[in-house]
Amino acid sequence: MAKNSFSKEFYRDFELLLLKQHQLINMIDRETNIDFNAKSLWHGTSTIWMDSICQSGLGAINIAEEYNLIELLGFLYAEILRLDINAPELESRRQTISAIITGKPLYHDNIALNYKYDGAYVSMSPLTAAKYACSIPSGSELLDYCLFLLYILRKSNIEIPNELNRINIMSMLPL
């Protein structure tokens, strides 16, 4: 099967998204009036999850489980492999995606990086929480990985099984 390749528009759109995220992070870095009191815990996320947090509390709903996101990620990644899609921007994320799917740690400089999605994560730094909120548009690193793979697959007319599409992920893809 011939490898699929992407148009210049794909790379332009993807680069623009990364540029916007980078600009937001730089803007936060310039903020100097943040009080680090080591008594507060901060959580950075998207307003997508605000209703859920207000209704049930932070971390009360595990979105990875609620929406089968690890299984969805595995399905989307398998589709990319099955269709033999050539997406150079995937190369830098391939090991991380595999670690998430398999549940095994990824080693970097002899340090185990665990990609676990079993609760809400907090920081003692409001800056770290703000960076996370700005760099993860969906408010979930795992959901962002799913959206990234779906963006690569968007022209492949795949059908996502209903049990893996509880979040209606196609509606979350940017046009």
Précis, in short:
The protein is mainly alpha-helical and 175 residues long. The chain has seven helices and two strands.
Structure commentary:
By secondary structure, the chain is mainly alpha-helical. The protein has helices spanning 8-29, 50-56, 63-66, 69-82, 94-102, 126-135, 141-153; strands at 106-108, 111-113. The protein has a two-stranded antiparallel ribbon with strand order 1-2. The longest helix is centred in the N-terminal third of the chain and has 22 residues, at 8-29. It is globular and about 50 Å long. The chain starts with 7 loop residues before the first helix and ends in a 22-residue tail after the last helix. 15% of the residues are buried. The model is unreliable at 1-6 (pLDDT under 50).
Secondary-structure blueprint:
Blueprint: H1 8-29, H2 50-56, H3 63-66, H4 69-82, H5 94-102, E1 106-108, E2 111-113, H6 126-135, H7 141-153
Antiparallel strand pairs: 1-2
Helix pairs in contact: 1-6, 4-5, 4-7
Q: Termini separation (Å)?
A: 28 Å
Strand content: under 5%
- Compute the CA-based radius of gyration: 17 Å
Q: Which stretches are poorly predicted, pLDDT < 50 over at least 5 residues?
A: 1-6
Q: Which structural class best describes the helix and strand composition?
A: mainly alpha
Order of helices and strands: HHHHHEEHH
Shape from CA axes?
A: globular
